[in-house]
Amino acid sequence: MTASAAILKQPPVSDSIRSFAFAARKLARELAPAGAGIETIPPALWLIISLLWERALRFDPDHGFWPDRDRFVVSSPRLLPLRLAFMRLAGWKDDERAASSDMPDVTDELYGLAGGLAGQAVASAAGMALAEKILARRFGHSLVDHRTWLVALPDDLHTGVALEAATLAGRFDLSRLTVIVAASSLQNTGRHASDEEETGQILGAFEASGWTTRCVKADDTAGMSAAIMAAQRSRRPSLIFCEPGPNHTQKTESLPPATVWDPTKRRGRAARRAWLRRLSHHAQRAEFERVVAGRQPARLNDDFQRGWTLNPATTMPKTDADLSLIGQGLNGRDILSGLLPELVTLTTGDFGQTSPRRRNDVRPEKAGHHTADRSYFCGHREPAMVGLMNGLALHGGLIPCGLAPLHSVDRMRPALRFAALAGQRLVCSLIESDPDLGACLWQQVEQLASLRAMPNLALFRPAGAREVAAAWISALAWRTGPSVIVFGRQSTLTTQPDTSDYRESDPIDDAETRNGPGCGGYVLEKPSAGDGIRDVTLIASGAEVEIVRQAKALLEQDGLQVALVSLPCWELFTRQDRAYRDLVLGDAPRVAIEAASGFGWERWLGNKGVFIGRDEFGATSVVDALFRNSGISPELIRERVIVLLDTALRTTDPVGGFHH
């Protein structure tokens, strides 16, 4: 059927559409926050969204969050009254989620994607469409067959993250994604040729990225209807741009009868009833309900530990890549990928285990005895990549995992902050940058502190194979926001001499090391005397642990009793009871070591502690030089500890000296 014939088959745009638009606008004005108003919402949106809701959108008002509903989201707080008004007119009630027991315990898309900065919503909407595609290939279109509709503002399209997301949406063939944009009402008067030229450039950029674009006039209802129908048939993502025009919403003072919205309600209810019938007979019903509810498979932790133990790369490393924390971290991701079909990896590059031949493949393919690879290659588009991960998490049914270099964290921060704000579970694995490739010019100073300061975010810095395994399990269990795991480049061979299998059911030798890394902090090495008496407690995480171990050996040669505490995750350690934290940290003076800013470390050091690290930039070329430039070498740590203890003893003991 040709497009013109399809348009002729559709009923003409009746007064009911305009009544729908007018009613939504009137209700939105009532719902808008005091002093906000709706004048900044482009007038053309009311009519095209009315057409969308009456003729295309699948929404059951009695079950507004059923899994196969169409996703209807907005990009800005300015558009929230519009979204809520149409949902209310369709019959949705605010108390529906609270009254329903089958709602997932995560932040839904009620507020759309309006919590992010301009352009972030485009990336997140693309992630929702990607989630639909992945789940449809796994469970079939009988269970997963919906679309994602994003209502955005022109400013969203002008951002770099939106253009990056457009490129990825075109690369991944996200044909069920449609973005609807209308020119701002402020552009209705005094519109210049430069505005049209800029709009043409943006549309051209989306077309070059593999999108289908259409421009419609604000008063061309037939063109709007045709554009929506074309988007439904398109094999590519679609962008509909509504140009400014006269406002033809009906000027009446009375609302139309409620029967005006009956077609929308009937279509949504019929779609859901048909879907429930298909679900009841589907062979994968139990698995589908599990992933939609966000439940982990039974005995996942035990299976992961078994896979970790049986994996030769983790138990009998033979190459430098296997010995590094990066290699161990990627092995852990591979093991989890084999156990969790819903784990989807987005990566910015080839970190040694992601084959370029499978970068865009969503089918589970075995990469080893315990691994399966579902990776999407995003290139150096970190803001868009994490934005897509937000969409995957908001959609539900998937666990997004991102792989990126550590020096890209500053570009990822806005999307990570949105994930923390929305309380979405996603895992970012940051790979320590290679100094030989010029990463030494970007220096880690304030990045770790800024991540730790972000609410709802858990930062992990494992120091050995055992801590890497615990970091993956703990990151999956962290459901209040994103998790970030930083993998260093140093060898794990000497950092963690204990290569025995770690399980939660292992006997606990003493309270100081209960569950080890799973608590976020524990005593890695006790004082050599074994009587529990400490002269000083050294605290570190990640790559610095090995340096601190060498410093501990030097201090013990001086006759001091030194405890080494590994603190891979502050957030988990904070959740432990006060008695355990005090037992691990001890009463002796504390010295924290980290090749980064000391901001935040004061919470663990107390009044008698000191921090050794870096608060300024400096020239470095290799990892060892990084530690030396930061004052982090075994000899320098020993000197600082001696000075600290000597000062403390002279303050409390006029005789001075060490009593050993």
Outline the secondary-structure elements.
Blueprint: H1 3-9, H2 15-31, H3 44-55, E1 71-74, H4 80-89, H5 96-99, H6 120-139, E2 148-152, H7 154-157, H8 160-171, E3 177-182, H9 193-208, E4 212-217, H10 221-233, E5 238-243, H11 262-280, H12 285-293, H13 300-310, H14 312-315, H15 320-323, H16 325-339, E6 343-347, E7 365-366, E8 372-373, E9 375-377, H17 382-395, E10 399-405, H18 409-422, E11 427-431, H19 447-452, E12 458-460, H20 465-477, E13 483-487, E14 522-525, E15 536-540, H21 544-557, E16 562-566, H22 570-574, H23 578-585, E17 590-593, H24 602-605, E18 610-612, H25 623-629, H26 634-652
Parallel strand pairs: 1-2, 2-3, 3-5, 4-5, 6-9, 6-10, 10-11, 11-13, 12-13, 15-16, 15-17, 17-18
Antiparallel strand pairs: 7-8, 14-16
Helix pairs in contact: 1-10, 2-3, 2-4, 3-10, 6-8, 6-17, 8-17, 13-16, 16-20, 17-18, 21-26
Folded structure, characterized:
About 45% of the residues lie in helices and about 10% in strands. The strands form 4 sheets. Strands 9-6-10-11-13-12 form a 6-stranded parallel beta sheet, sandwiched between helices. The protein has a 5-stranded parallel beta sheet with strand order 1-2-3-5-4, with helices on both faces. Strands 14-16-15-17-18 form a 5-stranded mixed beta sheet. It folds into 3 domains: about 5-285, 3-Layer(aba) Sandwich (Rossmann fold); about 295-485, Rossmann fold (3-Layer(aba) Sandwich), CATH 3.40.50.970; about 520-650, Rossmann fold. The longest helix is centred in the N-terminal third of the chain and has 20 residues, at about 120-140. Mean pLDDT is about 80; it is low at about 1-10, about 95-110, about 355-370, about 495-510, about 620-630 and about 655-660. The protein has about 650 residues and is α/β, with parallel strands linked by helices. Helix 18 links the parallel strand 10 and strand 11. It contains 26 helices and 18 strands.
